[in-house]
Amino acid sequence: MGDWVTASTKVKKEVLEKAREYNINVSETLRRALEEEVRKREEEEARESLRLASRELTKISQNQVVEELRKWRRQR
Question: Can you give the C-alpha Rg of the chain in angstroms?
Fold first, then answer.
């Protein structure tokens, strides 16, 4: 597991009091929420990269791909 750091935030007093009433583990809840948000952003970034790559790949014909593979194989 990686290194840990402390990240603090401010919440309304009433929210924290209610969280305590409901026995909510605030640290764990905030940690999971932040991890989930990071995961979502990484997925969005990956989808955008795939979209751009797909757009570029449509510019290349199948014949060009086949020819490049043949060149690559001959060079090995």
Answer: 24
53, amino acid identity: A
* CA 30 centroid distance within chain: 18
What is the pTM (predicted TM-score) of this model? 0.71
What is the C-alpha separation between 49 and 55, in angstroms, rounded? 10
Q: Which domain covers residue 36, as residue numbers?
A: 13-75
Please write the tens of the pLDDT for every residue from 35-53: 999 999 999 999 999 999 9
Q: Residues 6 or more apart from 9 whose CB is under 8 A from it?
A: 30
CB of 16 closer than 8 Å to CB of 26: yes
Does residue 33 lie within any of the structural domains? yes
